[in-house]
Amino acid sequence: MTLQQLKYALTVADCGSMNEAAKRLFLSQPGLSETIRELEREIGLQIFLRSNRGIVITPEGDEFLGYARQVTEQFEILTSRFVEKRTKEKFSVSMQHYTFAVKAFVETVKRAGMDRYEFAANETTTYDVMENVRDFKSEIGVLYVNDFNEKVMTKIIHEKSLEFIELFTCDTYVYLWAGHPLAGRSVISMEELDFYPCLSFDQGNHNSLFLAEEMKSTYDYKRLIKATDRATLLNFMKGLNAYTLCSGIICEELNGSEYMAVPLKETEKMRIGYVKRKGAAISHIGQIYIEELKKYREKIM
């Protein structure tokens, strides 16, 4: 088993197609396929299921690729540090779609400066937040747990050799456009919201109610729209008088003053925190980021 074989397998997984991976690697498709088969024979398991419609990663293959990604990324760190003599350190965070997590990242960059560090922030699905931390793509992953999803989330966190550290607890709020017909209310009920579209972040291949970013994921919504990014959701709020459910922690510096959070009558507690690799020490820059996140304890509405 070689490092090159691992990189080829990861490219196939990222492309979702042997043909596309071969193009990206400037290889022939038959040659790449044979290289992957040799790797599978050597390790004694099938990484990919092949069909005319492309490839599917097997459960055993998914586990193998997680470790393979760790090996290749650690090799890149060694190369950059000791061979190419790069001086900049890397810091990456993955997060659910929280503006306060983005704002904390902004403040971290300001405090640390960009002369010494290369930064990366990934707003992504709940599952990928945990996956990215497991695979060393990110040092820290920001997400929440509550009474409904705690058992499932704890199981996934444990299986990925991660640990969850709670930062603060907050209530559930309705996040909507300031021109929304319900924006003037002091509190809003789920019944009042039934007439309006509810917005939810699409969780992709892991679209489980337990992995939803929004509270009340089991509620029988009359109108539901899914999207993949925060900017699109904000446009839907304004254009369709839609809403979503959130922590109530909003950042006007990033989203502007056109949006607001109103308490939900049927509130539930969200325990917001971060995941990290189990037993791993947090880097200096990671500690700065956590300090910035903790500042929002005082801003909970």
Give an overview of the whole structure.
The chain is of the alpha/beta class. The chain is built from eleven helices and twelve strands. The strands form four sheets. The chain has a five-stranded mixed beta sheet, with helices on both faces. The chain has a three-stranded antiparallel beta sheet with strand order 10-7-11. Helix 5 links the parallel strand 3 and strand 4. The radius of gyration is 22 Å and the shape is globular. The N and C termini lie far apart (54 Å).
Strand order, biggest sheet? 4-3-5-12-6
Helix run count: 11
Termini Cα gap: 54 Å
Uncertain segments of ≥5 residues (pLDDT<50)? none
Q: How much helix is in the residues?
A: 40-55%
* Total strands: 12
What's the SSE pattern?
HHHEEHEHEHEHEEHEEHEHEEH
The secondary-structure class comes to: alpha/beta
Mean pLDDT: 90
How is the main sheet built? Answer: 5 strands, mixed
Radius of gyration of CA atoms, rounded to a whole number: 22 Å
3D shape: globular
Query: Beta-strand percentage?
Result: 15-25%
Compact summary:
By secondary structure, the chain is an alpha/beta fold.
Map the helices and strands.
Elements: H1 3-15, H2 18-25, H3 29-43, E1 48-51, E2 54-57, H4 59-83, E3 89-95, H5 99-112, E4 117-123, H6 126-134, E5 140-145, H7 150-159, E6 162-170, E7 173-177, H8 190-193, E8 198-201, E9 224-227, H9 230-240, E10 243-246, H10 252-255, E11 259-263, E12 270-277, H11 284-294
Parallel strand pairs: 3-4, 3-5, 8-9
Antiparallel strand pairs: 1-2, 5-12, 6-12, 7-10, 7-11
